[in-house]
Amino acid sequence: MSQAENKGPLGTILIADDDEGARDLLERMLRTSGYRVLVACDGAEALNMMEERRVDLALLDVLMSGESGFTVCRMAKQQPETRLTPVVLITGLGNIADRIRGIEAGADDFLSKPLRKEELMARVRSLVRLKQYTDQLETAETVVFTLAGSIEAKDPYTEGHCDRLSRYSVALAHWLGLPEDDCMALRRGGIVHDIGKVAVPDRVLLKPGPLNHEERMLMEAHTVIGEHICAPLKSFRTVLPIIRSHHERLDGSGYPDHLKGAQIPLNAGILQTVDIFDALTTDRPYRKALTSRDAFATLHKEVRRGWWDGELACALEEMLRSSPQPLAPSAA
């Protein structure tokens, strides 16, 4: 038994080629190097396998009967379940136009026929490591989102709050014409902005009445704790300012850093505006939900006190007046 076999497969590779001889040659090279191999005879079968099985890398021949390697690659990269699976196109075509076509389809790399084993194995090792690293990031993000959901589930009055914040913050960002990176940060920030409340005792988190000084200090610490929880995730770097600063106020009376005016990150201000409106328009133990009209009257009153961004409040009001339900419930 080889060392690779003793430790288990190094990864799962899908080979798609309608040439049996080419498939067998690739399969032998990969199996003897310690990889698990799946084999597809055409493009349709390859796409089904990628959707139904965990695949760390797909090696697709460009010229297959039925769906070409270009088509399979493009379709895989368009689907959430398979878009992060690395795809290498294997081709005997040498012209630049075909390379460009492959890049446009989303291919991660190319191999030219006849294949050289050393080059093949170097590409495979590199892309499998990349896929496994991506899987680890996805797992970490899933844990963070699950933890955030468990915090929300403690309080029946906040059911659906994070999903609404995520959807409406993204809708407001689109309304304001912000780039997609900001929309992604707000989509994630809406879900995890209060994740630091995991460190707040339930007696404080669920207290129906006013908090005393000690309890308020515990509650206000959740922004910094949440930032520390998410800081190790590089994919969350644009979310961290939202988590830390979504309780700041324009006059500097917010927390944790007492930022003023333009010091408050725009995305934190967007989520904050939506957060306040959502809190005002949902039932709480100490009051019934306000109508949208009354909620905006309260919000604008607090804008005049110097707490919130009046432009964002007006933009949210205009957006909701134009389309009261800008987005369907999130699937994320």
Could you state the CATH homologous superfamily of the largest domain?
Answer: Hypothetical protein af1432
SS-derived structural category: alpha/beta
Q: H/E series, N to C?
A: HEHEHEHEHEHHHHHHHHHH
Unreliable stretches (pLDDT < 50, length at least 5) are 1-6, 326-332
The CATH architecture of the largest domain can be named as: Orthogonal Bundle
CA-CA gap between termini: 44 Å
Helix count, DSSP H or I runs of 4 or more residues: 15
Mean pLDDT: 86
The percentage of residues in β strands lies in 5-15%
What number of domains? 2
Helix content: 40-55%
CATH domain topology of the largest domain: Hypothetical protein af1432
CATH class label of the largest domain? Mainly Alpha
- Largest β sheet strand count, sense and barrel closure: 5 strands, parallel
Number of strands: 5
Shape: elongated
